[in-house]
Amino acid sequence: MDEQKKHRVLIGKPGLDGHDRGAKFIARALRDAGFEVVYTGIRRTPEEIAAAAVQEDVSAVGLSSLSGAHLRLFPAVVEALRNAGAGDIPVLGGGVIPDEDVKLLRDAGISELFTPGTPVEQIIAAFRKACEAQEAGRR
Amino acid sequence: MTSEEIIKGLRDRDPRRIARAISLVEENDPLADEILSSLDDSLIDAAMVLGITGPPGAGKSTLTDRIIANYRLQDKRVGVIAIDPSSPVSGGAILGDRIRMMGHALDNDVVVRSMAARGRLGGLCAAAGAAVRILAGSGCSVIIIETVGVGQSEMDIIRLADITALVLAPGLGDDIQAMKAGLLEVADLLIVNKADCAGTDTLAMDMESIVRGGTGMDMNRAKVFKTVASEGKGIEELLAAIESVDSSHRKTGERRLRRDRAYDLEVLDWALEMIRPSLIEKIRKGVHDRKGAPRLQAAKLLEQR
User: Fold this and answer.
1) Among A93, A103, B35, B253, which has the highest number of CB atoms less than 10 A from its own CB?
2) How far apart are CA A123 and CA A93, in angstroms?
3) Is the pLDDT of residue B29 over 80?
4) Domains of chain A
5) Pairing of β A91-95 and β A60-65
């Protein structure tokens, strides 16, 4: 009977990478953890993802990339959000990301990165923390 | 964000503020009062609210996408409220209706909002009704509510619409049998989507025969529209029919009647939403000893108010 506040997040895949198994897995895991997950599907531009995140008033954006284009695409989403006046929405990313890229992406404003083998509980906890921080900053 | 900022944002059609306003009413935030009472009633009266319902997989979102595209050609600003079910186990939801509408993602005059049904007894109607008002108040002249038409709360939502279209598709099987009872009665327009697939004519004839049996129906209801939404086929005829139903409803007073009914429904739903938290609080605090019939406990609970 607990009616706790629901966290809204968006999961998207920027770029031409059509491998959405990881994105869908995370979307389902978040749903099962009680999140409301807006799923935008594959092959989105960073601008489309940002516009959808704004319209849906999500507290966090999760990106998946398995094709190696993360260094360009993840920061592009961060920038698109900023341009849309939504730079306060945190961006989390996951996929096949080499260790040496993790620091570069963090420096570019991606708040959390998940490489293959990260336990799903850790990912859910990171999304929850990111949502709570974003929601606390709204007022 | 203050309520003044949000109210100004609605007038300026600022996407972020519109989105925030909808969240605040959905969460039953104290600011919701100010936001909702600031809206221009004449815009709400003038907007056309179109309900699109049907079983999962019938192509509602794709059809909605095409309808949006057509209204955009007429330079109308379009709002969409896409409702998906919540998991009854976790309370979470995957809201995927947007996938089919991403072609409009960069169009500022298409405002798409996904909403989870949240499996609640009530509140969905209140939240969706308020979202319709916010979208109308921020300049949307056409507002589409898209929902799976199963379950009481989903049926109630469809009653918020001025005009309702029921979308079916061949080959979906038994879902359709179950839906025929309730939804055919509230639908103004019947659509067989995926009309390039086998079984279309049988399904269309089936629907026609059911509808013809009824009484006092609009002429449009005697016709079943065939669309192939993925290819944009049949959309223009459908839009023409929507317009004709709308103007006939305006003439006969049916539109007013439905608006009044929807208004009452929203008031009831809001009232229940407002009582709910205090009731939950009382039950949680253990005001009762879990003895006897729950109905008697409920009566006691209400007396205490």
Assistant:
1) A93
2) 10
3) yes
4) 8-136 (3.40.50.280)
5) parallel
Architecture of domain B40-252: 3-Layer(aba) Sandwich (3.40)
Q: Which helix (H) or strand (E) is B105 found in, with range? A: none
Length of chain A: 139
**Per-residue model confidence (pLDDT) at position B157:** 79
In this model, does residue B149 exceed pLDDT 80?
no
Strand-pair partners of B84: B116
pTM: 0.92
**B-chain residues within 8 Å CB-CB of A34?**
90-92
pLDDT at A89 over 50: yes
- Per-residue pLDDT band for A1 (boundaries 50, 70, 90) equals very low
Query: Are the beta carbons of A32 and B87 separated by less than 8 Å?
Result: yes
- Gap from B13 CA to chain A (nearest CA, Å): 11
Residues of B contacting chain A (CB within 8 angstroms): 1, 15-16, 18-20, 22-23, 27, 86-87, 89-96, 98-99, 102, 105-106, 111-114, 116, 118, 120, 276-277, 280, 283-284
Q: 3-class secondary structure for B126-178?
A: HHHHHHHHHHHHCCCCEEEEEEECCCHHHHHHHCCCCEEEEEECCCCCHHHHH
**Calpha distance B159→B71 (Å, rounded):** 22
The predicted model gives A40-66 an average pLDDT of 95
pLDDT at B172: 81
Q: CATH 3.40.50.300 spans which residues of chain B?
A: 40-252
